[in-house]
Amino acid sequence: MATVTSIAGGAPKPVFDILAPCFLAQTGYRHNALYDSMAGIASRVAAHEAFDVLVMPVPLIEAYVKDGIVQPEGRAALANIGLAIGVKSGGRVPDVSTPDAMRRALSAARRIVHAPPNATPSGAQSDRVIEELGLAGELAGRVTHKVGLAGGIAMIASGEAEIGIFPKSEIATAEGVTLAGPLPNGLQLIITYGAGVVAASPATGPATALIQFLITPENRKVWLSCGFDLPPA
User: Fold this and answer.
1) What is the DSSP track for 56-98?
2) pTM exceeds 0.90 for this model
């Protein structure tokens, strides 16, 4: 039985958790899904760690195609994801519908968590948002940098952080976390996740099958249910 090993950022995890058993049932192939920050994935690829499929923002996939690391055939855009605000379930849900409302919500929070700016696109955008709202000085010392799957989401659920900024899928599907809303227009970042087969993979057939499985009309519904939107046609 072939196993397809993929590596992705944290955003697609809820989708892969749902679809992995279906992929096995339909194809007989196992999906071994690994997760890391974008910086971590880049380091692991550079170290020649063995993967069959890379799941990353489309521009990064295209760069790997140019470098010969990802095959040009079989790659696909999977889905779009934006950033959102999460708070501990059961508490007050702040208004984050406009830049001014979001400025007030962030200013009132005693602790904010988002991914490290140098590790993920969401972390870089979160840092940029705080700067653009004029809160960098005020919030110095109140912001914790932690990847969602590496404890960032848990900080929200426990109440250790009053506000978290992460991809919508990580917040919307997390136990103990309530989605306050997406980042408002003008502050939002939309990431199109893509997938490509690693050129050195010994399982290119099953890897290609995984990518095609992820974009079937039926499975697109799972992406939507986890907070994603359909990618550009």
Assistant:
1) EEHHHHHHHHHTTSB-STT-EEEEEEEEEEEEETTS-----SS
2) no
